[in-house]
Amino acid sequence: PSIPRHTNRLINEKSPYLLQHAHNPVDWYPWGQEAFDKAKKENKLIFLSVGYSTCHWCHVMEEESFKNKEIGEIMNKNFVCIKVDREERPDVDKVYMTFVQATSGGGGWPMSVWLTPDLKPFVGGTYFPPDDGVHRIGFRTVLLRIAEQWKENKDALLENSQKILEALLHRSEIRVRGQESPPPSKEVMATCFQQLSSSYDEDYGGFSESPKFPTPVNLNFLFTYWALHRTTPEGARALQMALHTLKMMAHGGIHDHIGQGFHRYSTDQHWHVPHFEKMLYDQGQLAAMYSRAFQISGDEFFADVAQDILLYVSRDLSDQAGGFYSAEDADSYPTTTSREKREGAFCVWAAEEIRAFLPDPVEGATEGTTLGDIFMHHYGVKETGNVSPMKDPHQELKGKNVLIVRCSPELTAARFGLEPGRLGALLREGRQRLSTARAQRPRPHLDTKMLAAWNVISGFAQAGAALAKQEYVSRAAQAAAFLRRHLFDPTSGRLLRSCYRGKDNTVEQSAVPIQGFLEDYVFVIQALFDLYEASLEQGWLEWALQLQHMQDKLFWDPKGFAYFSSEAGDPSLLLRLKDDQDGAEPTANSVTVTNLLRAACYSGHTEWVEKAGQVLAAFSERLQKIPIALPEMARATAVFHHTLKQVVICGDPQGEDTKEMLRCVHSVFSPNKVLMLADGDSAGFLYRQLPFLASLERKDRKATAYLCSNFACSLPVTSPQELRGMLCP
Q1: What is the pLDDT of residues 492-531, one digit of tens each?
Q2: Cα–Cα distance between 592 and 73 in angstroms, integer?
Q3: Are strands 673-678 and 645-650 parallel, antiparallel or unpaired?
Q4: Stretch 551-566: mean pLDDT, rounded?
Q5: How many Cβ atoms are within 10 Å of 615's Cβ, its own excluded?
Q6: Rounded to an integer, what distance in angstroms lies between the CA atom of residue 277 and that of residue 261?
């Protein structure tokens, strides 16, 4: 590699995204005091650019503008330039994204915002092309105009930025008005179901025409809605909507049929042509949803997809120390000699490549049939490529195919005169060979930062429990131990946001570690509860409850209720916000409601139930009007309303009878159950927390189950059949 001409301060950072910009001719600073001081001292405006390492348009803007020497000179002369990785600093990203959305009506990344030296935003946008075009003003022009404004109208700009900040403070406030109680669960659930039902795509599943996102939050809501309305037509429709969507996604091109896992989203209605980046948080949530679909339907198809996702995570997104990497990029070099990257190059195929890799004649099929013929027919491969030019504006996929299951196995088998039972093995052989061929291609960039919030512990733990696979539960425990070792400070009792893969594959921490945000606490606590239910190791429970106390201390808003996404006391953060949208991931306040209810069940601290109600009260208006924006919180209103049932199994953890009872609990989807094992160790953590456990005994010396609610228990049962009857009334 040639010696870089330029190097800026980002060379000292750990984030892969910041390091990608370390050799731009722009004099980038990381977010921090050094940059703020320079802006104040030289009375310069700040140009803030926020993105992440797998963001396609971030790469484009870097190639066009940030690598351009002349644009770099304009930036360096007039501005203090700051680069932020939004995955490291979601707090900074949210403050300025709130501004960009409020002032331009849209948002996204790369985000480009100009700030006064005291960090107040006054102009913002997303991607800018370098030069003026017919419809868009170019980045160079914007830079020069803003620099000019600052020279000519400094006072007006400062005054305006103050007004903007006051308006933002007012707009972004989420709080309880008066003495509100939680919204009525029945109405919230019904409205959310209606809103999802009317936006549902009957043919292809999903909840919009295009682009189509996996949105696990919607599926999770529908499963819960079904569980509470099993015998009604609406309940049946909710289940059908969720299962059909999961089936269509698994058949689609958004699912990587050769390399496993799911891409970010589909650009079309059919789940066919995706944006090819793969995000860790999608894999974790989808593994949980496919496991749940299997648990409910008993259809092995869903179990296979869950295992496919977890194979991808274990193989490609796992650090040897137990952590998980954030993402894989969409763009890569088509061949080892290519000069420029193309989107999807790692994943797409020309028809002749498939013919060349799968030339074998297939015995027992119609005369002259090759493995390639069968494979291409089943996965919709066309000689001229199967991507519509409408979905390929840059012609990066011309002549290429994105694999998508186009036929049922029965139809493909019939088309070639095959026994239906033989098709599975033939397709498997085809996928295996293409996987070997694909391994020769240059891989896309891997973002090796590891975040506390983005952990697949819940995915592995839930799949391990529902699919009865102990190795998944062990992988979840290994990941939790990794969090404890690398993303937790035992002296302060606080979580850290991120760590990084360093030289020689060691795990590194930045010089000044980034402290955990609300989402880190919430997703780690959820993961630990799921891991306890799958492993019954009480240590995870104890840690979860300690973290819940810390979350309350750092983020709770005692005046307006609910939790702020960042803690108080950072002077560089202009706003403390509360997110109000369940998007690609559920928002932290939505997940925390169920966490609080579970925490209360495991500890007997009823004030956590009260807090859960207060969170719902703070979001009450939104939950009643547009619950489709908060499906995970809408789901939590039902869990709150129906009261969690404690399923207590009294038995010897090693006993076969105990294991049989546990298998029964794990095989049933019940959204309002909390599982605990009373192993008879009265000095153990759970018995100390919950004195009532001491009064529950084994009947006839057999493993015995009790269903308890508000610390009053049902009659004991000792057979899995009776227990199943109690769990599915």
Answers
A1: 999 999 999 998 889 999 999 999 999 999 999 999 999 9
A2: 47
A3: parallel
A4: 96
A5: 25
A6: 11
Q: Yes or no: say if 675 and 686 are a contact pair by the CB < 8 Å rule.
A: no
Bond before 110 cis per omega within 30 degrees: yes
Greater model confidence, 169 or 638: 638
Q: Which residues contact 200 (CB under 8 A, 6 or more apart)?
A: 206, 207, 241
Burial code (b: 16+ CB inside 10 Å, e: under 16) for 215-236 equals bbbbbbbbbbbbbbbeeeeebe
> Cis (ω within 30 of 0) for the bond into 442?
no
Beta strand segments in 542-609, E: none
Across 677-681, average pLDDT = 95
| pLDDT class of 2 with cuts at 50, 70, 90 | confident
What pLDDT score does 172 carry? Answer: 84
**Nearest partner of 619 among 653, 593, 643, 601, judged by Cα:** 593
**Residue in this structure with the two tokens 């330039």, named with its chain if needed:** 81
**pTM over the 0.85 mark:** yes
Instruction: Read off the amino acid at residue 357.
Output: F
| Cβ 611 vs Cβ 551: under 8 Å | no
Rounded to whole angstroms, the Cα distance separating 599 from 610 reads: 12
Q: How far apart are CA 368 and CA 534, in angstroms?
A: 51
Residue 143: both structure tokens together: 């830079």
pLDDT of residue 459: 98
As separate numbers, helices (DSSP H) first and strands (DSSP E) second, the chain gives 27, 21
What lies within 8 Å, CB to CB, of 598 at 6+ separation is 529, 644, 674
Q: Which amino acid is at 515?
A: Q
> Residue 718 pLDDT > 90, yes or no?
yes
Alpha-carbon distance of 265 to 210, in angstroms, equals 9
Question: Residue 703, SS3?
Answer: coil
For residue 394, give the H/E element and its range.
Answer: none
Owner of token pair 């093995």:
425
Distance from C-alpha of 477 to C-alpha of 531, rounded to nearest angstrom: 7
Interatomic CA distance for residues 715 and 728, integer angstroms: 16
Question: Residue 670: is its pLDDT beyond 80?
Answer: yes
A 10 A CB-CB count for 440 gives: 8
Say if CB 79 and CB 150 are below 8 A apart.
Answer: no
The H or E element spanning position 347 is none
The C-alpha atoms of residue 371 and residue 429 are separated, in whole angstroms, by 9
> What is the average pLDDT value for the chain, to the nearest integer?
95
What is the pLDDT at residue 135? 84
Distance between CA atoms of residues 98 and 565, nearest Å: 13
Give percent of the chain with pLDDT exceeding 90.
Answer: 92
User: Is pLDDT above 90 for 729?
Assistant: no
436/433 Cα distance (integer angstroms): 5
Beta strands in 456-605 (DSSP E): 488-489, 494-495, 498-501, 507-508
Token pair for 81 = 């330039």
Residue pair 317/451 in contact (Cβ under 8 Å)? The answer is no
Convert 415-459 into a string of H (helix), E (strand) and C (coil).
Answer: HCCCCHHHHHHHHHHHHHHHHHHHCCCCCCCEECEEECCCCCHHH
Confidence of residue 1 (pLDDT cuts 50, 70, 90): low
Compute the average pLDDT of residues 579-589: 95
**Residue 47, φ and ψ in degrees, nearest 5:** -105, 120
CB atoms within 10 A of CB 398: 11
The answer on pLDDT for 581 being more than 90 is yes
**Confidence at residue 281, expressed as pLDDT on a 0 to 100 scale:** 97
Cα of first residue to Cα of last residue in the chain, in angstroms, is 66
From the centroid of its chain, how far is CA 89? Answer: 16
